[in-house]
Specification:
By secondary structure, the protein is an alpha/beta fold. The chain has 12 helices and 12 strands.
Amino acid sequence: MKKPRIGITIGDPSGVGPEISLKALENDEVLSSCMPVLYGDASVLERAASIVNCSREIVTLESPEDAGEGNINLVSLGALEGPYEFARVQGKCGKAAFAYIKRAIEDALEKRIDAVVTGPINKEALHEGGINYSGHTEIFADLTGTKNYAMLLMGGGIRVIHVSTHVALREACDRAKKERVLSVIRLADGAVRALGIVEPRIAVAGLNPHSGESGLFGREEIEEIIPAIEAARAEGINASGPVPPDTVFVKALKGDSDIVVAMYHDQGHIPLKITDFMGGVNITVGLPIIRTSVDHGTAYGKAGKGTADESSMISAIRAAVQFAGNR
C-alpha cells in the first residue's frame, strides 16, 4: 500500500517543536509507516538539525507531492522575519508558526497531504504576532469552515473528548447544554469508529460532584446531560452515564469504556496527563481533514538544548497514520 503523506508543522521556532520534529524523523517506525513532510523555515530547521545532530539531509520542496525517501522533506515558507531567540515569547515566531499551520491546512484540503500533525505553539506569541486565536483547535476549525468540532486526547490507555476547552470555568458550566453534549457524544462515536473500533462504548462524565447527586449539587445532569445521553441512545449510540467525574477515568482505565466525554478542559486533561504526560496525543475531531498534535507546549526551558522528548510527536504521527489508513 502507498504510504500516507503526513504534513508536520514545526510549531513555534523558539520552542522545542523544530527539535522534536527532526528527532521523530530519526525513528524507524515513523519512516516505515508514512512519508513525512515538514512545514517550517529552512533556517529554523538547519539550526535545529545542528542541535540534535540530525543525520539526514534537509531537502526543500515546492510541493509536498515531491517528497521522497531518505531525506528530511521540507516545505520552506520563509515566514520568519529576521533572527529569533530560543525560549522567549516573540510575535514574529507566533506569526511564522501560524503561517506553517495555514499552508499545511491548505495542502490537506487540496489532498496534497493525508493528515496534519502539529508541533507546539505559544498562544501569547500568536497574539503578539497579530494572530487572534486561542489555540490550534480554533485555527483548524476556522480555516476549514468547521462549526461542529471537539478536542480529543489519547494517551496512557485513555481517550477523552471535551464538551468545552479554552474558556473560563464559569463559561464551561454554561456550555454544558443538551445539544452540545449530544453533538460531542456523536463526535466521540465517529472518532472511535475511525480508529477501527466497530462498537464504541462511550462514558459521559457528570459536571458536578457525584454527578449532581439527584439535584442536590446541581441540576445540569438532570436538565441537560441525561437528556443528551438518552437522545444519543435513541440514535443507536452506546452512551452511558452521567458517571461521577471522580470515578469515570478509573473505570475507563479498567476497560469499561472506549472513550470518556468530559465536560470541560481540566476534567479531561488532568487524568490523561497524569497517566501519560509526554506521550499523549491531541486530535481535533469533526474536521474535513485529519489533525493530530503533540499534547504539550513549547517547553521553553528545554528549547535549543537538544534534550526535548519526542515521544508525543511520534505518538501524534502514529495516530495520524492510523486515522489516514482507516479513512
